[in-house]
Design a protein that fits this description.
By secondary structure, this protein is an alpha/beta fold. It contains six helices and six strands. It is globular. The structure holds flavin mononucleotide.
Length: 187
């Protein structure tokens, strides 16, 4: 099984990236995990769609090759970060420019969401992401979806140590998503 992880933060020491690494560690050898690098994609501009940029083709190919997608999202002002929305807007577009019957890279693709942030435990951004992922017709596993709060001094120290309970919660989502994707791969 091939899983593609998307981290909605460009920060070098992103806590969401750390969360993704922890999920990868918990998955172990039960799936092949890779990370989508998308810092180089342009802002959505329909003028660019006429001749799909190479970077967009690359991210589409990586998404298409995956059996499942796991998005790790921060929360910015109660919403998903702009970089994440920009990526998903690109991925929502038809594979053949202007031909809406040609399908997209994401339609029907199994997906799950987790996030770490402030007091709200990314409830706002994950909720928004659910709406968006359904809108672009991804196959969303809505529950379980882990949302964690950083430790009070994490932003100052740049350190977030997950509690054993948080790890167990994440592990529960790992197991659920592996089962969810495996089930979809039968068809
Ligand atoms: C523009 C901006 C807005 C933010 N708004 C929120 C917010 O609404 N809720 C929240 O929990 N954290 C908010 N934060 C703090 C982020 O949750 C925190 O920086 C987190 O560590 C970002 O994830 P990362 O470590 O993966 O980059 C905001 C940060 C930025 C830069």
């Amino acid at each position: 099984m091939k899983l593609l992880f998307i981290v909605g933060s460009m920060r070098k020491t992103s806590f969401n990236k750390e969360l993704a690494h922890k999920a990868q560690e918990l998955i172990g050898d039960r799936a092949e995990v890779s990370y989508l690098h998308y810092a180089d994609i342009p802002f959505m501009n329909q003028d660019l769609e006429k001749e799909v940029p190479e970077t967009i083709q690359r991210v589409r190919d990586e998404v298409k090759a995956a059996d499942g997608i796991w998005i790790f999202t921060p929360e910015y002002n109660g919403m998903i970060p702009g970089v994440e929305k920009n990526l998903l807007d690109w991925l929502s577009r038809p594979l053949v420019p202007g031909n809406f019957a040609s399908g997209t890279a994401v339609a029907g693709k199994p997906v799950t969401v987790s996030g770490v942030g402030g007091r709200n435990k990314t409830k706002g951004s994950r909720g928004q992401l659910f709406t968006l992922l359904k809108y672009i017709r991804m196959d969303l596993m809505e529950e379980p979806s882990c949302g964690f709060q950083l430790a009070p001094d994490s932003m100052k120290t740049d350190v977030w140590k997950m509690t054993p309970e948080q790890v167990e919660e994440l592990n529960f989502q790992v197991r659920a998503f592996l089962d969810f994707v495996a089930e979809k791969m039968k068809y």
